[in-house]
Amino acid sequence: MISTRDNQRIEIEIKDVSKVFEGRTGPNVALETVNLNLMQNEFVSVVGPSGCGKTTLLNIIAGLLEPTTGSVRVGGKEVRGPGEGKGVVFQQYALFPWMTVQKNVEFGLKLKNISPQERKEIAASYIELVGLKDFGNAYPKELSGGMKQRVAIARAYAARPDVLLMDEPFGALDAQTRAQLQENLLNTWEKEKKTCFFITHDVEEAVLLAQRVILMSARPGRIKEIIDIQLPYPRSQQLKVTKEYNDIKNALWSKVYEEYLDHMK
Ligand SMILES: Nc1ncnc2c1ncn2[C@@H]1O[C@H](COP(=O)(O)OP(=O)(O)OP(=O)(O)O)[C@@H](O)[C@H]1O
To answer: Membrane-spanning regions, if any (predicted)?
Structure first.
């Protein structure tokens, strides 16, 4: 079993982070005093009502947005922009349409000092890991949505980041593909161990994947509660038929729904 206690090194340190957007109708406080540490190799899911600042927080960790106050450290270094060490997967697979699957996955490795042969081998191994061994020469337009998303995940993994930031990566997929990719991600994480920050609207998915679930409150976004998911790994879809899983899921669902109702008041 992998627990957060297996490694005590902090990989992502979010300290007093707030974010205020200046809107036409005045300031919009998207995040208010968010404090959170993710341990090395930890898998954390983030849930909360629409507009509570999940993506904003991810973008700040990724270095795509600057916080208004506070700071984020990844691997001990203050985040000052996007770059090495952080892999990001968005809901919409951002693949280059003119490149094959193999070339798309190799792309992130070009920036590193890796020989073309080694690049090829690393990319091929991750393409195999996500179950696309026979599609290395295919172009994105020849792939289904789920396959494209697997390529995006392979590309993020191939660059060997220490942290993987995922913003509803399976949100646009059908239930079966989603289940398959969840399983795929679990297997990959169990093998490769990365620090994962995974945003989802799906409570089932949050519980299935994570060691801890962060529940965010409606605007202004704050951390409302952190729930330890005490379910053993390796995990698979089979977990969903167990009482332990369903008890945790139902309790979390009620909390998320309460937060949503509060937000609608
Ligand atoms: N670039 C921006 N400029 C102005 N306001 C923004 C910007 N990005 C986000 N916001 C505002 O910040 C708040 C949080 O948005 P964010 O996208 O982080 O929420 P979210 O929890 O990810 O939502 P969802 O679950 O719907 O994706 C919202 O009120 C949104 O309107």
So the answer is: none
Q: What is the interface pTM, i.e. ipTM, of the complex?
A: 0.97
Check if 40 has its Cβ closer than 6 Å to any atom of ligand 1: no
Q: Ligand 1 centre and the CA of 116: distance in Å?
A: 40
Span 49-69, pLDDT tens digits: 988 999 999 999 999 999 999
Question: Which residue's CA lies nearest to atom 18 of ligand 1?
Answer: 53
Residue-range domains of the chain with CATH:
4-70+195-264 (3.40.50.300)
User: Which pair of tokens denotes residue 234?
Assistant: 């390796």
Is the minimum distance from the CB of 108 to ligand 1 under 6 angstroms? no
Query: Helices 145-158 and 116-129 sit at what angle, rounded to 10 degrees?
Result: 130
Does residue 50 line the site of ligand 1, with CB under 6 A? yes
Dist CA 116 CA 130 (whole Å): 21
